[in-house]
Design a protein that fits this description.
Elements lengths: L5 H15 L1 E4 L3 E7 L2 E6 L2 E4 L5 E7 L3 E11 L5 E12 L2 H6 L4 H17 L4 H6 L1 H16 L4 E12 L2 H43 L2 H15 L12 H9 L1
Helix pairs in contact: 3-5
Length: 248
């Protein structure tokens, strides 16, 4: 080897083999080691040594992983077809189980999130999907956390990001919202008229008990008319004043 003798070559190869067994594990990683196919306890951060040709090491990231769930075709309970995508946050809490209990925990978690998203959202109506998103997120997290717990994975949060509605459904919802606003406006208007009628009824009762109040109201009306620059002034005359002349 490069002009070295057999002994020197063997020494160099031995040194390279020994050095190749030195591994550096970062703070956020854990090393799962198999020795002759048998799992041994995972190693923490720092400088670790694995026996060449005997040990096999797999690194597992312990940081929270953000997984984007692609848009899924969901048919709600009221037979509305929508596209829904979500985001999933999870992390590995048991590196040994994450390696030994499932072939690829990233792919498995992604596929489980997609099927669970279609299943859970297909059980609710469209109004619930739009109005109760927080409750659905909590339900999705609970189900996914239960199914991924045997894999040594903890689901931190699930959030439904976007709901894509068909164009005809958007137009129907816009008409519904407009009709709802008109209904509320009519109710408010009717309530205002009802309250005004109650106040007028109370005022009529007071005037009936105190006839002089109509004269005061008449003078107040004259004052309000006088403040305006009108060329024509209409003076209302109470019927009580001319009723005696009409009787004659």
């Amino acid at each position: 080897m490069f002009g070295l003798g057999p002994v020197a070559t063997g020494v160099v190869l031995l040194v390279l083999a020994i050095v190749s067994g030195v591994k550096i594990i970062r703070e956020y990683e854990r090393a799962v080691i198999f020795r002759l196919g048998k799992l041994i306890d995972f190693k923490g951060a720092g400088v670790r040594y694995v026996i060449p040709l005997v040990d096999k090491m797999l690194k597992v990231d312990l940081r929270t992983i953000t997984l984007d769930v692609p848009p899924q075709d969901v048919i709600t309970r009221d037979n509305v077809s929508v596209k829904v995508n979500a985001v999933l946050y999870f992390r590995v809490i048991d590196p040994n189980r994450a390696i030994t209990e499932v072939e690829n925990y990233l792919v498995a978690t992604s596929q489980l999130a997609q099927t669970t998203l279609r299943s859970v959202l297909g059980e609710v109506e469209l109004d619930e999907l739009l109005a109760e998103r927080e409750r659905l997120n909590a339900k999705l997290q609970r189900i996914l956390d239960t199914h991924t717990d045997p894999w040594g994975i903890k689901v931190v949060q699930v959030a439904v990001k976007h709901i894509d509605l068909p164009d005809e459904m958007r137009r129907a919802m816009a008409r519904q919202a407009e009709a709802e606003r008109e209904r509320r406006a009519k109710i408010i208007n009717a309530a205002g008229e009802f309250q005004a009628a109650e106040k007028l009824s109370q005022a009529a009762t007071i005037i009936q008990q105190h006839p002089v109040a109509i004269q005061l109201r008449f003078l107040q009306s004259l004052t309000e008319v006088a403040t305006q620059n009108n060329s024509t002034m209409v003076l209302p005359v109470p019927v009580d004043l001319i009723s005696r002349f009409l009787s004659r």
